[in-house]
Amino acid sequence: MDMFELLANLDWVNRLTALVETAIHGHGWTFYLGLDSGWTRARCEKVLRSKGVKVYGHYVANGDVCFQVPTKQAEWAEYLLLRAGAPLKYALFSERNRKYVGGAGQQRDWLSLDGLLDFLSSL
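^ that's the sequence the OP posted. Answer follows.
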């Protein structure tokens, strides 16, 4: 764990803000990106907000940058992020978007044995 991740885990203000935003907007779909992926929350927000997607509930946990979008917009948001090359982690919201995974947008599929072991080791 590097200093940034340590400080992010101790940041109770962002976690409380994420909790309040989730209470206001409802629990949506959560996207995860590795802290070392080269993609920041701001970069994802720029991609999504420019196309009308609401982004909320930001936090850092277990080496991942996490944020939520409304469930009604999750498939569109996932498509936009994958087309932009974001290296999303874990399961896809929509299997229709799987064809856009690849190259810079590699995704760790938690349904495979390696992905499942990676996921379990991060808990």
